[in-house]
Amino acid sequence: MSHHIFNPILLHMKILVCISHVPDTTSKINFTNGDSEFDTNGVQFVINPNDEFGLTRAIWFQEQQGANVTVVNVGGPDTEPTLRKALAIGANEAIRVNANPTDGFFVAKQLAEVIKNGGYDLIIAGKESLDYNGGMVPGMLAGLLGYNFVNSCIEVKVDGTSATASREIDGGKEIVSTSLPLIIGGQKGLVEEKDLRIPNMRGIMTARTKVLTVLEPVAANTETKAVKFEKPAPKSAVKLFSADDLDGLVNALHNEAKVI
To answer: What is the pLDDT of residue 40?
Structure first.
């Protein structure tokens, strides 16, 4: 008699995708309150690009391996349209931790609580967010939970409780084998831009009926604080030299630009 052994992790892997709600790169950025706070007026918000690559990869696991995909965000009610978009793309359910994401450590503490209570096998976070570029949260999560961690991840495959991941390193890529539970700091390469999905009408309608759970935050310290923001200096005007004025060009490069 033959026996068939079914691996429950493979058939019903639970994936949590961490979603940051960030300004669209085309938005005009301003600061208020003595340049100590980001001005959100008139700013269009989107899913953080690194997180969208991760979400698309998670949907692939859902379609190919029957995984259940949950998205999570730490933020106020204003982030819910971003979570609904993730649901329209294909996530099964969403969680919002009802708190202002003051810094990376605070966010990591909130997400760690969600992960502990949810029993997730694979946690996909972007390696960094497009706005503050802190790059802290995935590593902090791994430290708080004691989970395996692969940063700058450009590929991940799961077979049962085993995983293979590729990560970007200087001059190439490194392939590692590890096991679940696993946290990755993902980026472009998990999927390509052409693979990203635009919600269709059916997805948008279905997203309205999917569960969006709001949780209150756990107590956590804020370890860092933004004191002041400063925009980069505007680019100076281009100075042109005629083809026969090489002396003037050399003089400007040496004395003004100080590059020679």
So the answer is: 84
